Amino acid sequence: MSDLIHRAFTRAYRASRWVRRRFTPLGLFLLVLFIASAVLGADTYSTLIYQIATLAGAALLVGLLGGRRFAPRIAAERSLPELATAGEPLRYRVRIRNEGLFPEKGLSVRESLDPALPTAAELRQAHEPGEEFRNWFDRKLGYPRWEWLIAQKQGADVRDRPLPIIPPGATGEVEMELIPRRRGHIRLPALSLWRTDPLGLTRAVREIPLAATLLVLPRRYPIPVPELPGQRHYQRGGLMPASTVGDAEEFHALRDYRPGDPLRRIHWRSWAKTGHPVVKEFQEEYFVRHALVLDTFATPAQAAAFEDAISVAASLVTRMPSRDVLLDLIFVGEGSHSVTADRGCQGDAQLLETLASLSPTHGRPFSALRALLSQRVGLLSGCVCVLLGWDSERQGLVGSLRGLGLAVEVYTLVDGGGLPAAGPMADEPRRFHPIRVGELGTRFPKP
What we know:
The strands form four sheets. Strands 10, 13, 14, 15, 16, 17 and 18 form a seven-stranded mixed β-sheet that branches. The longest helix is centred in the first third of the chain and has 21 residues, at about 1-20. Helix 12 links the parallel strand 16 and strand 17. The protein is extended and about 105 Å long. The chain has helices at about 1-20, 25-40, 50-65, 120-125, 135-140, 145-155, 240-245, 270-275, 305-320, 345-355, 365-375, 390-405, 440-445, and strands spanning about 75-80, 85, 90-100, 105-110, 155-160, 160, 170-180, 185-195, 205-215, 235, 250-255, 280, 285-295, 325-330, 335-340, 380-385, 405-415, 430-435. The chain has 13 helices and 18 strands. It folds into four domains: about 1-70, no CATH class; about 70-115 and about 155-215, Immunoglobulins (Immunoglobulin-like); about 240-285, no CATH class; about 285-445, von Willebrand factor, type A domain (Rossmann fold, 3-Layer(aba) Sandwich). It has about 450 residues and is an alpha/beta fold. Helix 9 runs antiparallel to helix 10 (about 345-355).
């Protein structure tokens, strides 16, 4: 039954999309008028309504046939930034070059978003935010969920932009606006050019292939910066491995070789100059290192809470001090991950791009996060936890971190009901922040 419903939704959506693209609002009105009058005027002997259907149908047919000749010779170029932020308008320029022999006028341009449709499995498993408040028929049939899934896959709202008259060989330029609906990658496979017929009823549409991908960063809010006291810890290998991936170390000086020194530390150029082996010496580094622990163990019903948790983590990344403090983003996906930001703005961008691509973790126990933290706790000075609840497992994680002497700040997402008790954070309630799902914008309004 679900496969039958999925096929019906697919056909209905494709037909609806074709109609919306090819008809103007006035044309849609005439189309509805044509269908209604054709049905009511089927008996031509008892009513004259069929004449309305004839006139409306003729006007629409003229517009549709006129669009078959629309084949402009156009080249396009899009100046698209690499990054955007969910919910914030993105403006960029599109240049259109007329490679034909005649002026092009009356053209409009629009982004053609990814037309990928949800699968039957996605339709069954998805949970639309607020779906529990819909009527029984919509919940069982699932068409509102289908429309929501399509909007999520496309990922953005776009608008038409009219182009100026473009003479042969000339280039026209227009500013486009795109509003990302969600974080993650958004595919822009083509640009759509269209021209309205002289009656203003139909559109002739042509697509120009121009593939691009835009990475959308999570929404961010002015969350107060947590003040985590912490002491310096010895970082094995020095400063460089704390800022990059690998086993690089902080170079200090050169000295003569001693038995037992690893061969990889030999400085071959100095050996060639002096005639005896010389090795590189590395200094020990002590500095403050904090962890941002993100709970990714979300059920399908916690999709909204997971997105809010991503936004909280992204907000903290951009607001926590980056100078003289290293920040590790720790989470569990298909594997166990710890991403360390470089010092400065580029490090923030690295963590934000990681957060933009995260998806919920399925099939792994919450204890995997606890095991990952236990491996790194000796390097940490403080810890910020962003959690998707406040059950016994999550309270146990926070309690174990505090038992090891770490300063801990907790942000937990609450979906309905009352706010939870502080539990193991009862002695430091100012470091415990329960946040209702969907209320980030009201609790931390942007200036």
